[in-house]
Amino acid sequence: MPIKYVRSLTGRRRTTTANRHLGFALAFVAGATNAGGFLAVHQYTSHMTGIVSSMADNSVLGAYDLMLGGAGALLSFLVGAACSAAMVNYSRRRRMHSEFAVPLLVEAFLLICFGFLGAQLSTVDGLFVSVTVMLLCFIMGLQNAVITKISKAEIRTTHITGIITDIGIELGKLFYWNAASTSTHPKVLANRTRLKILILLALNFFFGGVMGAFGFKHIGYISTVPLAMVLVTLAIVPAFDDVRLFVRRVMRK
């Protein structure tokens, strides 16, 4: 993989193509993490809609322990997104090349921790839920926030509801029968490029989920380590650029 291309994926200078390619890769990672994580903790960790709904249900049913468990997962996702935004803004204020790479490197580190320590962490209680659930929710919040900031909220990778909704909207426009058009009622036209991107995001999430579930089923928690290596590959070049610049500044003093 050419260094220039890798740098463009997570570097400071953004292009539409780089945003899309990064989105596809992160959708795959998110799908794998979410599906593999479900087999590990028996809970999807990127689906905040479902978690909030279950909190409401459990509060009515009197299952307050489960409601608090949902609150712990929700808070972990929220903190992950907040940390991602803080890292990006900190790096941006200092004009670092790795403003978008740093959160992905943190995510990679946490996935490695999950891979090697997941079995032990699953027995450790966190905030109303196990540390593994909190860790996975934090990772999902971290990743979703970084791609949201990169693409200015045009691309999301950790949940499919919005993507499927947008696909439906574009399909509705694609198959709309334009009987006649006037200046006040122009033709309804689908954005075919956007439709293609949305379908690819959904497919990458799905195939990532298949690979994540397959990996966890056959090799367990350690299956997250290859996902971490993917993230490191995506983020390492801008991070190395910053390290190189830092060393140059130190040498000049």
TrEMBL record:
<protein>
    <recommendedName>
        <fullName>DUF1275 domain-containing protein</fullName>
    </recommendedName>
</protein>
<keyword id="KW-1133">Transmembrane helix</keyword>
<feature type="transmembrane region" description="Helical">
    <location>
        <begin position="127"/>
        <end position="147"/>
    </location>
</feature>
<keyword id="KW-0812">Transmembrane</keyword>
<feature type="transmembrane region" description="Helical">
    <location>
        <begin position="100"/>
        <end position="121"/>
    </location>
</feature>
<dbReference type="InterPro" id="IPR010699">
    <property type="entry name" value="DUF1275"/>
</dbReference>
<dbReference type="Pfam" id="PF06912">
    <property type="entry name" value="DUF1275"/>
</dbReference>
<feature type="transmembrane region" description="Helical">
    <location>
        <begin position="21"/>
        <end position="41"/>
    </location>
</feature>
<keyword id="KW-0472">Membrane</keyword>
<feature type="transmembrane region" description="Helical">
    <location>
        <begin position="228"/>
        <end position="247"/>
    </location>
</feature>
<feature type="transmembrane region" description="Helical">
    <location>
        <begin position="197"/>
        <end position="216"/>
    </location>
</feature>
<feature type="transmembrane region" description="Helical">
    <location>
        <begin position="61"/>
        <end position="88"/>
    </location>
</feature>
